[in-house]
């Protein structure tokens, strides 16, 4: 597998394209379909949509931090984040959709306002990792692309761009502590490798089971 690279421009493009794909997934659903299970264990599609909507707001907090210099964390606490998702699952589907659309628009507008100097501002993720604000588009791109698959509406990892999948595989491999030899031991097409590494259903034969991710 070739060594992937990802540029800032790549991540901004992936946010746009991934958001369009996630929105297309939502458009395939009738109102009653949102109460059905997603492909994430224990989550309905309402849980999933609420999570993606809340993620836009949370990443917007990081962009605000970079823009103003005033610290603004993604979430008040992990417990509050989880409680908000559970509350979202009880809300009407159309209300959740409107939240998602509004949050997505506001995040895009906020990112468009940042200067190069502000993109270099340090922020802290929900996992308490210090990164530059320029990593926020990548964080959002992962959310919308992978959760578009999790909606369970017929979108698969094969529908995601190859350059995004290469960057995703590289990141997850590193985070899971897997070597190039570990990957070479598992043969299969790139989308299936990405699904396996992301802890999603896949068609690989003999691939060791991995825990959940994202």
TrEMBL record:
Residues 17-151 form the Mycothiol-dependent maleylpyruvate isomerase metal-binding domain. NCBIfam families: maleylpyruvate isomerase family mycothiol-dependent enzyme (TIGR03083). This is Mycothiol-dependent maleylpyruvate isomerase metal-binding domain-containing protein. It comes from Nocardioides luteus.
């Amino acid at each position: 597998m070739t060594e992937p690279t990802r540029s800032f421009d790549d991540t901004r493009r992936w946010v746009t394209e991934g958001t369009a794909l996630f929105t297309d997934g939502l458009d395939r659903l009738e109102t009653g379909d949102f109460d059905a299970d997603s492909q994430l264990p224990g989550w309905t599609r309402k849980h999933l949509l609420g999570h993606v909507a809340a993620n836009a707001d949370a990443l917007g907090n990081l962009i605000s931090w970079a823009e103003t210099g005033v610290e603004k964390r993604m979430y008040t606490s992990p417990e509050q984040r989880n409680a908000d998702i559970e509350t979202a699952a009880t809300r009407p589907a159309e209300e959740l959709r409107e939240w998602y659309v509004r949050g997505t628009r506001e995040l895009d507008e906020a990112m468009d306002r940042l200067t190069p100097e502000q993109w270099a501002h340090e922020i802290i993720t929900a996992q308490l990792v210090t990164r530059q604000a320029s990593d926020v588009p990548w964080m959002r791109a992962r959310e919308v692309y992978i959760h578009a698959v999790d909606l369970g509406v017929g979108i698969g990892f094969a529908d995601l761009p190859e350059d995004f999948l290469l960057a995703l595989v590289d990141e997850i491999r590193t985070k899971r502590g897997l070597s190039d030899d570990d990957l070479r031991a598992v043969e299969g097409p790139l989308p299936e490798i990405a699904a396996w590494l992301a802890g999603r259903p896949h068609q690989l034969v003999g691939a060791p089971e991995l825990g959940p991710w994202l």
